[in-house]
Write a structure and sequence with these properties.
This protein has five helices and four strands. It is of the alpha+beta class.
C-alpha cells in the first residue's frame, strides 16, 4: 500500500459516495487507474465495503444498547453467529472477562429492547445470562480508522 492508496482510503472513509472521477482528480490519476487500485484494495481485504451511513434515530431506531452475554463456553461461537443474525444486532464481539460476548443493539425503544432480549436472547441454547447498558447520548461514533502515512 502506497501513499496514493492511503489517500484513496482516507477519501472513501470521509465521503464514500465520491465518484471514481472525483477520486481520480483528488489523487491525480486517471479514473481507470483508480478503479484498478480500488479493485486491488478490495482483493487484498483492506477495503471491505463502501457503504452509506444511515441516521438510526430518523429511521426509528432511537434505542442503542450494549448487551453483555454470558454463554456456555462450548456454545460461544455458535451463539455469537446466531445472535449476529438477529435483526437489530449491529455488532458481535468475543471479549475477555466475565462475559463472553458484547453486542451492539439498536431498537425502536426500550420496549423493543425488552422484546428482543426476551424473544431472541433469553432461552436460546447456550445463553446463560445477559446484562444490558442503555446509551443515553452518543458523543462520538465512527467506523473510520486513522490511515498512517
Amino acid at each position: 500500500m502506497d501513499q496514493i492508496d492511503r489517500q484513496l482510503l482516507t477519501f472513501l472513509q470521509q465521503e464514500g459516495d465520491l465518484t471514481k472521477a472525483e477520486l481520480a482528480r483528488r489523487v491525480a490519476l486517471t479514473p481507470p487507474a483508480v478503479l484498478e487500485r480500488l479493485r486491488k484494495l478490495r482483493e487484498s481485504g483492506l477495503l471491505r465495503a463502501t457503504t452509506a451511513v444511515l441516521d438510526p434515530e430518523r429511521l426509528g431506531f432511537s434505542c442503542l444498547a450494549f448487551v453483555r452475554v454470558q454463554t456456555d463456553p462450548t456454545r460461544t461461537d455458535a451463539v455469537a453467529r446466531e445472535l449476529g443474525d438477529v435483526p437489530g444486532v449491529q455488532e458481535v464481539h468475543h471479549v475477555a472477562g466475565d462475559d463472553c460476548l458484547l453486542l451492539k443493539v439498536r431498537c425502536a425503544d426500550t420496549a423493543g429492547l425488552s422484546r428482543l432480549l426476551r424473544e431472541e436472547f433469553h432461552g436460546r441454547a447456550g445463553v446463560r445470562s445477559t446484562r444490558s447498558t442503555i446509551v443515553l447520548e452518543t458523543i462520538k461514533e465512527t467506523s473510520a480508522l486513522p490511515i498512517r502515512p
